[in-house]
Amino acid sequence: MTQTAAVRLDHAALRRGDRLLWSGLDLDIAPGEFVAILGPNGAGKSTLLKVLLGLLPLSEGTALVAGKAPRRGSSDVGYVPQQKGFDTDLGARGRDLVMLGVDGHRFGPLRARGRSERVEEAISAVGANAYADRPIGRLSGGEQQRLRIAQALVGDPAVLLCDEPLLSLDLNHQRGVVELLDRRRREASTAVLMVTHEINPVLPFVDRVVYIVDGRVAVGRPDEVLTSTSLSALYGTRIDVLRVRDRIVVLGAETEPHHDHDHFHDSDAGEWHSHE
């Protein structure tokens, strides 16, 4: 029997007003596959997640999540939003944050016992037992992010969508979050789609990358897409991809005037990023 794709996009395109964010996107993501979504700011990476969350309709083509049309509040999807710090005076505990993943579900709260068990399982799965009862605003960024992932996992989703989950985390916490996501996809066959600018921490774990630039999309294994030839074609200008001690550094000259908002700098840490 053919395995149902966790995510399927067929000739997908999305426009916002007069602007084409991306088009011609054909993508089948298998259960348990780890996919990184890359590209400059404003390229439409987070917007792709919104389509899969059922928050935005495609302009063209079709999208399926776990064999069904994307639907707001679907139990098939867990979502880790971009990290924003909590007020240090916030009295809510980490456990309360995870509980929202149950209470906010589309079919309403579970009975107290079932709800509590699922929250405990999710907290244990991310290794957050030691601080789950501390005020959420006084936890470190890495601890908060683990609890956000627990919140997304409490419904046992088939697909986990992560929007910049490594943002503002130090290298140690970045590694911990990526290893957590990798363990989840291997143990539960949960497909993971991660929007990120921090490619090096995820490079050893991802199966494929989706790279979006100025309406164009490249899909493939990291060693296929993250090359000088591939990125130069995608950006329409000379891009050099260097591999230094198992890390990727992307260097690029200023692009042509109609693309002058997209350019690269290599950072001190050997990571890469892009900006508008």
Q: Overall pLDDT, averaged?
A: 84
Uncertain stretches = 105-111, 253-276
Strand order of the largest sheet: 5-6-7-3-8-9
What is the share of helical residues? 25-40%
Morphology: globular
In total, the number of strands is 13
The CA-CA distance between the termini, in Å, is: 46 Å
Largest sheet: 6 strands, mixed
Q: Number of helical segments?
A: 8
Note the beta-strand portion.
25-35%
What's the SSE pattern? EEEHEEHHHEHEHEEHHEEEE
* Cα gyration radius (Å): 19 Å
User: What class, by secondary structure content?
Assistant: alpha/beta
How do the strands and helices of this protein lay out in sequence?
Blueprint: E1 7-16, E2 19-29, E3 34-38, H1 45-52, E4 60-65, E5 77-80, H2 94-103, H3 112-125, H4 141-153, E6 159-163, H5 171-188, E7 191-195, H6 199-202, E8 208-213, E9 216-220, H7 222-225, H8 228-235, E10 239-244, E11 247-252, E12 263-266, E13 272-275
Question: How would you explain this protein's 3D organization?
Answer:
This protein is α/β, with parallel strands linked by helices and 276 residues long. The protein has a domain at 85-155. Helices cover 29% and strands 28% of the residues. It has helices at 45-52, 94-103, 112-125, 141-153, 171-188, 199-202, 222-225, 228-235; strands at residues 7-16, 19-29, 34-38, 60-65, 77-80, 159-163, 191-195, 208-213, 216-220, 239-244, 247-252, 263-266, 272-275. The radius of gyration is 19 Å and the shape is globular. The model is unreliable at 105-111 and 253-276 (pLDDT under 50).
